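Methods: example folding runs. The two proteins below were folded one after another, and each record is reproduced exactly as written to the output file, sequence line first and structure-token line second.
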Amino acid sequence: MATKTKPTEEVKMHEILVVDERRCTGCEICESVCSMVHDGEFNPLNARIHRIRLEPIINATISCVSCFNPSCVSACPLGIITKNDETGVIKIDYNKCDGCGACVRFCEYGAITIHTKNKQAITCDLCESTEFDKPQCVEYCPKGAIFVREVDPSQDENRIITLGKIIKKGFPEPAEGEILN
């Protein structure tokens, strides 16, 4: 059951990444760009966004969905994963993360992985930890398939339901002549 904050409270919407599967070709540029801006090298295994293919032709992405009550935060035995209440971004203290993987096992959406080199948890932070002021996967997606969308942080609902509502609202129509996936 969804709960909501008091109507008098001003709620700042949180942002998440959502893909328009009609546009996504599965090129994996989002993963390469993500790993480059975070780590300085092209290595999709260390991306904070992950392309998945649902055979035969549907491509989608997995990234942090800013859960109302993130299980990754409560699962961390060191207490070093936090959620920024203002932005909804999950923060990991890399000075203390030991890479135990509890957060990976408890994330219901598969949005946290372990970095292949430094063996620490990583997840999408909308490029807040980089020099850029917006997600670079959105900027560099050649098909314009990745969008930043807002979610109401006061809604305690399953994020699959939230994503369904966002997708149902739809995405901007492609430019004339643009070929969809």
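Second run, written to the same file directly after the first:
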Amino acid sequence: MATPMRTKMNKTKKVQKLEKPLKSLQGRVKRVKKLEKTLKSRQATLKKVKKLEKTLKSLQARVKKTEAADKKRDRKEKNIDRKKLGTEDDLLHFMQSVHDHKSPEAYTKNDVENG
């Protein structure tokens, strides 16, 4: 028969043999939990990035539309400027003809500052 002292020693040795793998497993569990937290935060970051990419695409589309509208408006403004130039030429032609056909009694005051 085994003595109670030997059984205690055998149990203690068995427990000591199991404690080392148990600590190793506990360390692994901690690392896995840490990795899970990291993964969750990275997934949240990825969601934010995808949302920002969608926003960026929509903003780029708006910029393209705005640029196209600006170009179209600029073309219209250039056409208006050309019309204004034509009107100035007509006005100069009209003033020249009035000046050429005025009577000798007519008086023209060329005072720009006082009107």
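Comment on the second run: Residues 4-100 form the longest helix (97 residues).
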